[in-house]
Amino acid sequence: MDTPKLRRGLDLVLLTADFAGTLLFAMEGALAGIRGAMDLFGILVLAFTTAVGGGIVRDLLIGATPPASIKDWRYGAIAITGGMLAFVFHGTVAQQASSVLITALDAAGLSLFAIAGATKALEFGMHPMMAVLLGTITGCGGGTIRDIFLNTIPGILRTDIYASAALLGAAVMVISVRALRLHPSLAALAGGISCFVLRMLSVWQGWSLPKIGA
Amino acid sequence: MDTPKLRRGLDLVLLTADFAGTLLFAMEGALAGIRGAMDLFGILVLAFTTAVGGGIVRDLLIGATPPASIKDWRYGAIAITGGMLAFVFHGTVAQQASSVLITALDAAGLSLFAIAGATKALEFGMHPMMAVLLGTITGCGGGTIRDIFLNTIPGILRTDIYASAALLGAAVMVISVRALRLHPSLAALAGGISCFVLRMLSVWQGWSLPKIGA
Amino acid sequence: MDTPKLRRGLDLVLLTADFAGTLLFAMEGALAGIRGAMDLFGILVLAFTTAVGGGIVRDLLIGATPPASIKDWRYGAIAITGGMLAFVFHGTVAQQASSVLITALDAAGLSLFAIAGATKALEFGMHPMMAVLLGTITGCGGGTIRDIFLNTIPGILRTDIYASAALLGAAVMVISVRALRLHPSLAALAGGISCFVLRMLSVWQGWSLPKIGA
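Above: the input entities. Below: the structure tokens describing the complete assembly.
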């Protein structure tokens, strides 16, 4: 089964998914910029940082410089394309932003980024616990920078099961591959599904984490 | 013409211009700190980050660590001098802050930083498109960090042709040197003039980028 | 006196102090998160960034990647433990937060971080002036990131002798070891005491730095 041809096919699927996630996150960032009364430049900055900010922070922290999305111009091009799409078709994009489809796609993107981030951290020799943290940062870092640019408290710190879903997914992946010795692809699948299911369930059920005095 | 003596002279001119830009940006950062009711320490922090923050972010992103303005103590010394000057002579400095002279000097500093940043990014092997982005970050990154410290939405994301002028200048430089094969000095000159002229024209004419719903 | 056994003992004391400082800063960060209506995830993020953020920024700036607190999982574990303690015992922790004991422990942590940060910067070949700056960043950087996450102007930029105490301590240490040629341990002690005393005196006397128009 594990022929070079299959592997090349799998790599292509993963790269396509990574680019698709980047495009979607960029469009969501751009939309937040439009809502925040940014001009075209600001909208494109938010598209770019939302899409690739998490990966850049991860790469700086694990010492993988220059970060992948600075070295490979295609991420930047996709992010700017996403930003332009959201700018031009903002009416349609805004209408769909909280649809079930977009929520599911966003959850898929979050799962992918969290798993990919934790995997890369393990490859760079990070401790499993830190790999989980770095996977979470990969998934949520871009949105956090976007919220700081918009001068609001990062949403993931106050509401929703979003970062926690990324954390769970990364943890399931790291435990599966390191403690349970599962094949990396299976571990990634288990982690990704955990993140996706927790995120979708929590949106559906309106779950949130405990707070004090709330 | 291209004798070592001439080259040394040109390097000296560039270094002087870089230091002068650092001093000016530091004074503008300090002034923003004074307006934001910062204490002396905060004013010096804003002077430092406004002056060298863009270059530091660029150097971290291209993997040129430690960043130039951390390795070379003179940038820090100049930034703190600028901050102290603005603190002591704040009345005079504040009066001049929106004069034509300061607007022109600031546009010159922006041009210089954008061109120098894009050049360094090319030297570190970045893709031309990313070099344009990194030049823009060099020019505007310091002011963006300053605005985040002041708890406001970064000005460049919402108003004015400022970052866009830096982007244009960096793009003209990169295209001139890579596609048109101009001599680097000529390309830098063309880029710098483009940035300067667009910035000054847009201040004069009150131009701004398109927004949605505005 | 300077036997390997003594040195090992000293290293253990320093490591213990470093871990204790990390725990205390994490609890303070978590408390700020509770006050800011963060959920459990946000509280733990604030605990982590307050405790290790300053050291991470220093390590990125001096090119010591991956940063110590990313490479060594124990810092993260301690920070998260501190955050959980503050979450569970928040009533007791909040009551003690402005007591003389906690103020003194916090001042001790600040002193330790500032001295350790400046020492590491010197070891990485930074100029003495930049080492002082990097020591200050190590002491105050975490709290600055915490304040940005909480969407407030970083406290150290506006009020109190806090960053200035870290700056003084780092400066005394650097001058002692470089200009006065004191033994590094003595220099560290002199610097740490300077920071601690200035901080405690300024809390007691209500000192603050000059401002314009205040």
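Note for the figure: Chain C has one domain: 4-205.
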